[in-house]
Amino acid sequence: MNNGIESNGRLPPELIRFLEAPGGHSLVIKGEAGTGKTTLALQLIEAAAAKQNQYYLSSRVSDESLFRQFPWLKESSERIRLLKASKAFLLHMTSGRQPLQPVTGQDADLGDLSPAIELLKAFNEETEKLTVDRTELHRLEGQIEEGTVSGGEDFIPSRVGLDSNSIDLVLGRLLPELEVAYDRVEESLPDRSLIVIDSIDGLSEKYDIPAERLLTVIQKDIVEGSGSNVVYVLETSGGTHMDYLGDGVVFMSASEISGRRVRLISLDKLRGVKVDRHKYTFTLVNGRLETFPPSPNVLPHSRRKWKPVVPPSAESASFGSSQLDSIFGGLQYGSVALLEVGPSVPSIYTDVIQDALVAGFAHKGNGVAWIPSRKASYDMLHDRISGMIGEDRFERNVRIFEHSTAAPTDVPYLISLEGNKLLTDLKWETIEYNLNECNHPFLSLLGFDILESMYGNDEDNGFLDGLVEHVGAIRRGNHVMVAQALSSSTTYLQWLSDISLLHIKLENIEGTVMMYGLKPYTQFYGMMPDPDVDDNINISLIPIS
After folding, report:
1. Could you give all domains of the chain from N- to C-terminal order, each with its CATH number?
2. Pairwise CA distance, residues 118 & 511, whole Å
3. CB-based burial, 139-154: b 16+ in 10 Å, e otherwise
4. pLDDT 10s digits, 502-512
5. β-strands 53-58, 193-198: how paired?
6. C-alpha angle with apex 543: 540 to 544, nearest 5 degrees?
7. pLDDT digits (tens, 9 = 90+) for 85-133
8. Among 46, 104, 157, 250, which has the minimal tally of Cβ within 10 Å of its Cβ?
């Protein structure tokens, strides 16, 4: 944890460093509707709560609407002091002290101005107060009063007039939202503030003033003049002149891959900050923006004690993972499941799934016939699984079939394959013989990368005949078969998909490994390494919503 802004969500670390950097910075967040711009802006406010004064200016959405959409926001609204510009009532201050009298006559219908008068008193009593340079704001307001710039249909001039006995205070609506934003920054000086304007387009539309002009005013007065941070939410997604005016530009998008939604944050520009990763996949689950960091190639395999998992039903076996069971409903007895692995997916993500499957069956005393992929050695598999369920359970219930001239003959759980014909090597009678002390049903776990390299694609070697016979034995005996195949395996992938009741795929999207179901259809789930997750796999499966 750093000494600057502390993120309570999983935000891109580059954004946090950008807002922590010395001086003031402006950030433009843009994207189509529903891509998560407001969520990101609110979490930036929350992240800055400990170090920076915050002010949220919404031109489109009410407090209650925000609280309904983001329940977590209401719980922290007091702590982060979220204010709305609609509560502004005082636009100008006077520096001279004069006797104050109630407003009478034609101005009496403006309402009770006693709160404004009391506030004026408080301001008049302050000395040596740090102020925000309002040069550009006053210049813009002057142009509005002159009529050279529009101030919106409801524009009423504002003035504070003085004579020897009274203050003549007329409340107008020049740019009240910006006035209060300036006040909030000024109240916090010399400390920095974070101002969020959601959206700059809405403010522009309200006052009929170009958004670029508003941004220029705020940039010069608040960002450059006071050293505070300002975040602008932009309702459009294309390139604009504001991309050049802002110090940083973030583009948020939602697209479809394989008919499923994927959300991306693109860090198009962050002036003065090293950008380690330009794109992040993310989710908006539970009203929170959670980015997925790059998927690592290595995971420390924990030696946690195996936690038995109750099968989803009497007709199905568990994956050994409560997360996988809840998503896919378990493995139905007498069926085939396909685990397809796309390019650039590190083997550790299939390893944790296979480890849970093997450990789950073996822990219950059920037999496991395992032909692992070429990347796994029998001794490494032994160490991983026996570390979870114990040496005795592993050696009694697991058999690893391997084709190697150097394979030892005195390892009780290792079965040698001749590698000539699958129909001969994988006869069901052979499996039953080697697992004769185990309970039914069995798990047959086959790595098709090693099978194809051993037996080839030549139909004369009876490879397909052997597969058909093996699948028939699975269905007749009410066992379970799980096939792991690469997406590049064009020969048998479609055949496996056709015969499978479950078809699960792992894919690398923008550096993050995602899991999803083709049969049954599911959304994407980000596979996040998590040693503290309450599951037998040390990965959290986070839905993309």
Report:
1. 13-88+178-291 (3.40.50.300), 316-543 (3.40.50.300)
2. 58
3. ebbeebbeeebebeee
4. 999 999 999 99
5. parallel
6. 130
7. 434 433 333 333 344 444 455 555 555 666 655 655 555 555 567 888 8
8. 104
